Amino acid sequence: MEALELLPEDMQERAADYLLSQAKKFRALKDAIDEGMADVEAGRVVPWDLEEFLKQARARTRR
Predict the structure, then answer these.
(1) The pTM is what?
(2) How far is 57 from 16, CA to CA, in rounded Å?
(3) Distance between CA atoms of residues 12 and 18, nearest Å
């Protein structure tokens, strides 16, 4: 808040809007990470095999 008050008045609203936007993005990212970690802890995550994925994808495109 102090930093915003140091800005010229015509810049304060844009700066506050930007900070709010960044805070919302941070919160969404934090929530997604928390959800992913909960999935890991609950055993709902399995290792991803890129080679197997590509093999299956190639097989589907050949049909």
Answers:
(1) 0.64
(2) 46
(3) 10
Residues 6+ apart with CB under 8 A from 45: 36, 39
CB count within 10 Å of CB 16 equals: 13
Q: Which two tokens stand for residue 24?
A: 């919302």
What are 29-48's pLDDT values in tens digits? Answer: 999 999 999 999 999 998 89
Tokens of 54: 């590509």
Say how far apart CA 29 and CA 25 lie, in whole Å.
6
Q: Residue 5 in 3-state DSSP?
A: helix
Overall residue count recorded for the chain in this entry: 63
